[in-house]
Specification:
Shape of chain A: elongated
Oligomer: heterodimer
Strand content of chain A: under 5%
Helix content of chain B: under 10%
Largest sheet of chain A: none
CATH superfamily of the largest domain in chain B: TolB, C-terminal domain
Distance between the termini of chain B: 80 Å
CATH architecture of the largest domain in chain B: 6 Propeller
Number of domains of chain B: 2
Number of domains of chain A: 3
Largest interface: A-B, 39 and 37 residues
Strand content of chain B: 35-45%
CATH class of the largest domain in chain B: Mainly Beta
Distance between the termini of chain A: 57 Å
CATH topology of the largest domain in chain B: Neuraminidase
Number of helices of chain B: 4
Radius of gyration of chain A: 29 Å
């Protein structure tokens, strides 16, 4: 049952959570990557955590794997609590509080998957410890605790009290002696960490040494919940036997409470966190599911973020609808179309994708690189590596492209892609066999052109003039003019569309019609001055807009009605 | 007798080959060519006692290599690549200082064919390289943001690399410019940038953290060079900006929006300003002459937004410096008017014996690292003669460089490997105006190492000893923001 809940939560309700974790790591098979992780405290847990997360690439598989991990954690807690309480009849339900707590904790996207994995490993170690002979146990811990500290880091603190409790239960060591053993174990952990901090991890900050290198994505931060989760694991193992669950209503009450906790702590928390709008939309951008991006942004205007605006404009452009529909979505300014990189991973990721499709190879490369470097735990990302390998290859630098594709070749899900790239390095003519790469190669700039963010519309126009197939570039140029309110340049550029035909429209796109109508009106023209390609609907809407503006510019219809989703409203508000 | 000795010597490698555990050469084809090795090591000049010059043979699945000294000694190795024993190699180089090491290569290709190639010759200079190693910053060749950066030191007698200060040890955005005084690890400075910032000075175990920005200066102190006495550091203050190219062969253009130069009195925490180094023009990369009585620097007309960036060309100039009074001279000498030749000079580095000045020269720009045409050039300070150092340059960018303490070796960074990653190369300087063929920073498995390495090496310099920095204490001091504020010298 719990497996099903976890599976549905991640696989069906929030695949973006899986994608978020998967795309900001680059797990590689091979001894080198393993040894790299075994070179610092907590490295084994991080390694296994990354191993698990790689399966998140496929949402349903990832959800199943993750649900299985959570269930395994619950069952392990249950088995250990049965041992310690010396009762075989303990219900499983209380033990499932642990994976539930993990699910709630991990709504925080910076809580890494390695942490619950590490707790499982610590509990497994305790399980194994229970088979150590009594006479050897004290000596065994002198080896086990430093070793576990090295392999798991901080979660050795879960192992220590459980092992001490097992001493009490299995071999009738007094409670007092068990407590002493626990305290000595903690001291051993502290000493291990201090020794490590003065020797092999001399250049690591104390947080990484004492609390695990990568259990939380943000550097210098150890969230309270990390301690709560560890404490909960210990308490559930030690005290489950004391819960009064034999009473008639106890189990149903606990079950209902857990469902409520799941709903409030997980479902509602996911839904109310606007950050997940960004993560969801980016998930769809990464998959190039443009319709889903548009659909989501259309249905969730209250969850508009800097990134979603960028992404929906990209999606509209990819579907050839940018000029037709962009003002149906909230727009800020030029940065709505071309995001400014702001030292944050999502600030320019959609723009990096846009540049990729526009054929601005160097700029796309730059933004993918910079976006990746903003990943808070300094992990490298398969998604960015993939794009960078492609872009270096398109630029003809196969040696550097191979630097990025080789790690991908050592992954489970990106290796085919890497091998495809490798074939192109060996025979560059194959690049042109891929329609997208061929298109980018045709679109890219070969002259000395500087990327100037103040004159991007000129750059886009140049791209279009260099290759008239690059209609997206012309759309971006014109739409930038609109966003900048630079209607003079818009009118100069507008003839390039040849009545909308060059951008693939049968009629002049709606945003262009609105802009032209607005210009004529601003210049003192009337409805009679409108060119024939302005549709009657646009004329009618414009008349209504003008009337309402003159009567009550703040009226409901202008603020939230269909007229709020026009260029007129945008440009008037901007002024 | 001599014939017998020769017979034994020539039979020895074969006997050793036969005793090895790998595939045994059979039906060996003699190739009248040098082996296709990475890196290019034929005819390079190396110092004695350096780490093994290991190499990979392109297309080979197994390699036998025999290194034979012209004076004495012979060592062998075999495997997927040529990987010599460190101690044996160092002994061989010591035994053959002033001579040559010939390396015979027999390699098995993937088709099962053995080939024996013409020997590679490696010259071993009798000019020693007394340094422990080199220091540098490792950084991904990127744009605006960097995560896994750090300043490292590398033992040149082995393959060991040690961190000095890295992204794991300190919460900061950027760190750069580990600059030692004449390669002395007991006297150096490092800039740290970000929310927690400062310039770390460490001299004979005593450490100070300074805020080098003053109300009367345009920026923090940046590009640094120590006075030989260790009392002063010459700095330029640069408002650095980047622009980005869209064509495949160009990428980034780094330029200044403003720059001045000054001298910091490290002991008194005072900036020594001069109107000659704080003009409307841009002054950058100041360095002291070997005797400490002169400052070389680069200067350009200021950047004007309407102008093209390729109008930014730097001349090499100089001004006197009085280290006793701590005073900058009263007139500027133009030493090389590079701008009149349509060139730009940066990174001047006088040799410590005072005889030569090594510098970068490019078509324009203050930052030649991104310029493929950038080359190293040298000026004889006694005759004023200048020339491009063709023997060390490549079609790719050569940029930052430094001398070792004996002024007989230079380290420089170059993008010749892939036009993307700046790697380190070393060249011998014979003291008579000629450099030897450079060699790449040795690695145990060069092909694998450099292929997998995502970083570039920045700001390389020799270091006589291992740099010892208490990084936890530094991190604590930086986080506490306890900075000494520099003042102005009256």
């Amino acid at each position: 049952m719990f497996f099903a809940v976890a599976f549905v939560t991640y696989g069906l309700m929030h695949p973006e959570w899986l994608n978020f974790h998967e795309q900001f790591q680059l797990f590689q098979f091979g001894s080198e990557y393993l040894l790299e992780h075994l070179g610092y405290a907590s490295g084994l847990a991080i390694y296994i955590g990354e191993f698990v997360v790689q399966f998140f690439y496929l949402p349903l598989l990832g959800a199943a794997v993750w649900a299985a991990v959570l269930v395994a954690l619950g069952l392990l807690i249950h088995r250990l609590s049965c041992r310690i309480s010396e009762r075989r009849d303990l219900p499983v339900l209380p033990a499932l509080l642990m994976p539930l707590l993990i699910m709630i904790y991990q709504v925080d996207e910076h809580a890494m998957a390695a942490y619950p994995v590490s707790i499982i490993l610590a509990l497994l170690a305790a399980w194994g410890y229970s088979s150590v002979r009594p006479a050897w146990r004290v000596y065994a811990n002198i080896v086990i605790i430093p070793l576990l500290y090295w392999l798991l880091g901080y979660t050795v603190l879960v192992y220590i009290p459980v092992a001490a409790a097992l001493d009490h239960v299995d071999h009738k060591v007094s409670i007092r002696a068990s407590v002493v053993r626990g305290v000595v174990g903690v001291m051993l952990y502290v000493v291990s960490a201090l020794v490590v901090s003065r020797t092999v991890m001399l250049h690591y900050i104390y947080r990484d040494i004492f609390f695990g290198y990568d259990y939380y994505r943000l550097r210098m931060v150890v969230p309270v919940m990390q301690h709560v989760v560890a404490l909960a694991a210990v308490l559930l193992v030690l005290l489950s036997g004391l819960m009064p669950l034999s009473k008639k209503l106890a189990k149903p009450v606990l079950a209902v409470a857990m469902v409520a906790a799941w709903y409030l702590g997980c479902v509602r928390a996911f839904a109310s966190d606007v950050w997940y709008a960004t993560i969801y939309v980016d998930y769809q951008v990464g998959k190039e599911n443009w319709d889903k991006v548009i659909e989501y942004c259309d249905k969730n205007p209250d969850k508009t973020t800097y990134y979603t605006v960028n992404a929906v404009n990209l999606a509209l452009a990819m579907k050839g609808q940018l000029a037709e529909r962009m003002f149906q979505f909230p727009q800020q300014d030029q940065t709505s179309l071309i995001g400014n990189f702001q030292n944050e991973v999502y600030s320019a990721l959609a723009t990096a994708e846009a540049y990729y499709h526009l054929g601005l190879v160097n700029s796309s490369l730059r933004l993918f690189f910079d976006s990746q470097e903003c990943v808070k735990d300094y992990s490298k990302t398969a998604r960015c590596y993939r794009r960078m390998a492609e872009l270096f290859m398109i630029n003809g630098n196969y040696e550097v492209a191979a630097k990025y594709s080789d790690p991908l070749a050592r992954t489970l899900f990106y290796s085919d892609f890497a091998h495809k790239l490798e074939a192109c390095y060996a025979d560059p003519s194959k690049i042109m066999q891929d329609p997208k790469w061929a298109q980018i190669k045709r679109f890219r700039i070969n002259d000395n052109v500087m990327h100037n963010t103040l004159h991007l519309n000129n750059l886009f126009t140049g791209l279009y003039q260099m290759n008239n197939d690059n209609r997206m570039a012309l759309e971006y140029a014109l739409c930038l003019d609109l966003l900048n309110g630079d209607l003079d340049h818009f009118l100069k550029r507008f003839p390039l569309t040849q009545g909308g035909r060059t951008t693939g429209f049968v009629d002049i796109p709606r945003a262009y019609q609105e802009a032209i109508t607005y210009v004529i009106y601003k210049r003192g023209g009337s409805v009679w001055d409108l060119p024939p390609y302005i549709s009657p609907v646009v004329q009618q809407d414009f008349n209504r807009f003008v009337t309402l503006m003159s009567q009550n510019p703040n009226c409901e219809e202008l603020r939230t009605g269909y007229l709020a989703k026009t260029y007129w409203r945008y440009v008037v508000s901007s002024n | 007798m001599k014939n017998i000795k020769n017979l034994i010597l020539s039979a020895l490698p074969l006997a050793l080959l036969m005793s090895c555990g790998g595939p045994k050469p059979g039906n060996v084809a003699e190739r009248n060519m040098l082996p296709p090795v990475f890196p290019d090591i034929d005819s390079i000049t190396i110092p004695a006692d350096i780490a093994p010059i290991n190499f990979n043979v392109d297309g080979a699945t197994y390699v036998y290599a025999t290194a034979r000294g012209s004076v004495s000694g012979q060592i062998e190795c075999d495997g997927e690549w040529a990987d010599f024993d460190i101690d044996q190699w160092r002994q061989l180089t010591r035994d053959n200082a002033g001579g040559c090491i010939s390396v015979d290569v027999t390699a098995l290709d993937s088709a099962g064919q053995w080939s024996k190639y013409q020997p590679i010759h490696i010259f071993v200079s009798d000019d020693p390289m007394p340094e422990f190693g080199v220091t540098y910053r490792r950084i991904r060749p990127g744009y605006e943001t960097f995560s896994d950066i750090g300043i490292y030191q590398r033992d040149l007698h082995s393959f060991e690399e040690l961190p000095i200060i890295t992204y794991r040890s300190i919460q900061t955005d950027c760190m750069n410019c580990h600059v030692a005084n004449r390669c002395d690890a007991n006297c150096f400075q490092i800039h740290v940038r970000g929310n927690h910032f400062g310039t770390i000075f460490q001299k004979d175990g005593r450490r100070e953290l300074m805020n080098t920005k003053h109300d009367s200066t345009i920026a923090n102190c940046m590009y640094a060079y120590w006075h030989p006495t260790g009392k002063y550091v010459a700095y330029s203050l640069n408002l650095v900006h980047q622009s980005f190219w869209e064509n495949p062969t160009k990428n980034i253009e780094v330029y200044d929006l403003a720059s001045d130069a000054l001298v910091l009195d490290v002991e008194n925490h005072e900036l020594i300003l001069s109107p000659l180094l704080k003009t409307k023009d841009f002054e950058s990369y100041p360095v002291f002459s070997a005797d400490g009585n002169y400052i070389y620097f680069c200067t350009s007309k200021p950047y004007v937004e309407q102008n093209l960036l390729d109008s930014m060309r730097y001349d090499l100039c100089g001004v006197a410096f009085d280290p006793v009074a701590g005073r900058i001279g009263d007139h500027v000498d133009t030493i090389i008017a590079a701008s009149k030749m349509g060139k730009s000079i940066t990174h001047p580095r006088p040799s410590y014996d005072g005889k030569y000045l090594l510098y970068s020269i490019a078509d324009y720009s203050v930052f030649p690292i991104h310029h493929r045409e950038a080359e190293l050039a040298i000026m004889d300070l006694q005759t004023g003669e200048q020339r491009i150092l063709d023997e060390v340059n490549s079609p790719s960018a050569e940029s930052f460089h430094n001398w070792n303490t004996t002024s007989r070796w230079i380290v420089f960074s170059s993008r010749r490997y892939n036009n993307n990653n700046n790697l380190l190369y070393f060249a011998h300087w014979d003291g008579n105006g000629h450099a030897g063929k450079p060699f790449m920073l040795p690695q145990r498995n060069p092909r694998d190492y450099y292929h997998k390495m995502m970083h570039s090496y920045n700001v390389p310099d020799f270091t006589l000893q291992k740099v010892d920095l208490d990084i936890r204490a530094v991190a604590s001091e930086i986080n506490d923001n306890k900075l000494i504020q520099v003042g102005l010298k009256k």
